[in-house]
Specification:
alpha/beta; 11% strand; globular
Length: 346
């Protein structure tokens, strides 16, 4: 059997290889690397049937069961789908869970068709361990954290720098009760793979920019070692007027969400907002939704910033006062990053 192996996990995380993941759909959904596609050798039902045979009759019978389930035209169809991926991508590596039987068989079937592709040594399990090692060894990295009140456009500011890691973009969430993007968040394992990939991408730079985040972005947790480094990194604080922040919040958060989503998001902070203020914001939000009136939307946004987000931000920032290096508008922060860290926008 073809034994061509690849153990360049760093290269895989950096997207230098396209991953042909032959695990079942359910396994793939638990976590994957960004540059991958799922084309199972055994789908969920077939894998379950093989698993039952394994338990009842042992590995040889399970192997025979798998070969029986995926044979003839079905086998040809699956091999062709793999061939298509390999023809469309320059460097492809085959991956299953442990880099064992399934990726070996896929490799052998491809070889029979004239294509020789490596399989990932240790499979997704080994890649996962490498990913975790990247996220645990961050003491040598220099981070600079961009802070600022809600609506100052911290993410937009970060996106101007090649040295930045956009955690909210990787998490598909803007990091607040109103932070849903309309795209389902990745699984925790997939999120950590994305973060590890970005950590590796930016390690060539002397400093890496991050946005000030809490422990969780939506339902996903920032990797603990990274979050710990963010708690000791220098802070630069982006400032904008309340009017500017209301406008940016409207265009960033509100226009992309429908009425029920906005009301649901508001309900999540009902207790912390207080019943009287919650009812005040709720009434204005309901009127804004019913009339699709921008002015009314901006009214409840201003209330919410003033009543809830700004006091919360001011309290959190007061605990980080000694780490603040500069406060100001975009131009001020850009000049500071250039002078102090030799960082310039793209």
């Amino acid at each position: 059997m073809n034994s061509l192996l690849l153990d360049d996990y760093r290269g895989v995380l950096l997207g230098q290889y396209f991953v042909l993941d032959v695990r079942a759909e359910g396994e793939f959904e638990t976590g994957s690397v960004p540059n991958s596609v799922n084309l199972p050798i055994l789908n969920n039902d077939e894998r379950a049937a093989v698993g039952i045979t394994y338990k009842q009759q042992g590995p040889d019978a399970a192997y025979d069961k798998g070969m029986q389930l995926v044979s003839g035209s079905l086998k040809s169809k699956r091999v062709q789908s793999w061939r298509d991926v390999i023809h469309q991508n320059t460097k492809v590596v085959i991956c299953c869970w442990r880099g064992g039987k399934r990726s070996e068989i896929a490799q052998e079937w491809l070889a029979e068709s004239g294509i020789h592709a490596p399989r990932l040594a240790g499979g997704s399990k080994a890649l996962r361990q490498y990913c975790l090692s990247v996220l645990e060894k961050l003491d040598h990295r220099n981070f600079v954290v961009v802070a600022g009140q809600t609506g100052t456009g911290k993410t937009l500011f970060l996106q101007q720098y090649k040295e930045a890691v956009d955690l909210e973009g990787l998490a598909q969430h803007r990091g607040s009760a109103f932070g849903r993007t309309g795209i389902e968040q990745p699984s925790p394992i997939s999120f950590e793979a994305r973060v590890a990939s970005e950590i590796l991408r930016t390690e060539q730079h002397s400093f890496t920019l991050l946005e000030d985040e809490s422990r969780n972005i939506g339902r996903l947790a920032v990797p603990p070692a990274l979050h710990a480094q963010m708690q000791i990194a220098p802070l630069i604080v982006l400032m904008k007027s309340l009017e500017e922040r209301v406008s940016l919040t409207y265009h960033t958060y509100v226009k992309s969400q429908n009425g029920p989503e906005l009301l649901d998001s508001l309900s999540k902070i009902r207790r912390r907002l207080g019943e009287e203020r919650y009812q005040e914001v709720w009434r204005t939000m309901t009127d804004a939704i019913a009339s699709d009136n921008k002015t009314l939307h901006c009214s409840w946004i201003e209330k919410l910033l003033s009543y809830y987000y700004d006091p919360q931000y001011d309290y959190q920032l007061s605990k980080k006062h000694e780490r603040i290096r500069v406060r100001g508008d975009e131009a001020t922060l850009k000049q500071y990053l250039e002078d102090q860290y030799c960082l310039n926008p793209k």
